[in-house]
Specification:
The protein is α/β, with parallel strands linked by helices. 41% of the residues lie in helices and 15% in strands.
Length: 284
Amino acid sequence: MSPTASPFVLAASAEMLHRDLPFTERVTRIAERGFQVEIWDWSAKDLDALATTGATFSSMTGYLTGNLTDPDGIDALLSSARTSLEAAARIDCPRLNLHGTGLDDKGLPARPVEVVTPDMWLTAADTLRRVAELGEAAGRVFTLENLNLAVDHPGTPFARAADTLALVRAVDSPYLRMNLDLYHAQIGEGNLVELCGQALPFIGEIQVADVPGRCEPGTGEIHYPAIARALHSLGYTGVIGLEGWARDDSDAALDAFRAAFTLAVPVPADDDTAAGYTAAAAGS
């Protein structure tokens, strides 16, 4: 009988959990539970304080303004991507996240788009190639996240998982990957296991929350243990991040998240790696 452990790297959003605590304490609390930590707008954070928490950061916002298609918006996005890379170096964050356009503080597009034209597609792909070049020069990866239009982000261009996958595939750079958010994908497209298989070669990380409500696994309609088994069968071993609210208690939400992505997996023979699996199984 194989011991239980997570074959994935688990992370959690400090933006959405332990919201009663100061931000740096949220990061510390999540890290103490053995999770990597995801943050959003780094410009509003004390990066020096975050760097002293001992946390391992999984991802952060990779731009502050701009978009993929307008000349002025492209310049702004590339400029803020450069600044974001400098911030990422301060906390050693390997992945920087992008969206189809800039979002306001309510998650709505700063420049809503009703129809995405063929020229916009070509321009967006070219902009993302330039973003990938910035990532390559800095040794960090930008990820393009899918969103949903029906509930959270109406009017956002290039929002569907199929859209982000098409753009990442067109650029075809290891420094631009897909941030596959399964909460958004369930609302917009569904068929999550098939989607994971299609996107697998281009995934930089996966984010999860349940539907409806955007809370931890087990609070809605997505059977995340089945998703975990499918991802393991596909050979995915990368980051899975909980980007969801806690229904009641943040520690309980983290427990439910860990349980959903814990499987009966063989312990590697290497002593150091085996020790890590044992620690993960113990919930350290």
